[in-house]
Amino acid sequence: MSDCQSLGDCDDSRIERIYEYLDGAVPKADIVEIKKHLDECPDCREQHDLECVIRTVVKRSCKEAAPENLKNSILDRIHSTRSA
Question: By CB distance 3.0 to 4.6 Å, which of 20, 36, 42, 76 could disulfide with 25?
Fold first, then answer.
């Protein structure tokens, strides 16, 4: 049985541990405990899944390059602002 029944019962430190887990920043010894908690706590699992979606969208967005004409336009504005 889970030690929390809703996200309100899981404190911020538990949610922070989920983020650290996703970052690969938890000791190996803690991974089993975190996975077990995610299996048992639907609200934390939902938070985990949402964070995974957000990270995927951000990664995808960061890979897209701005069109060359947009870059040139921005650089032109920066140079004209500096000259003024």
Answer: 20
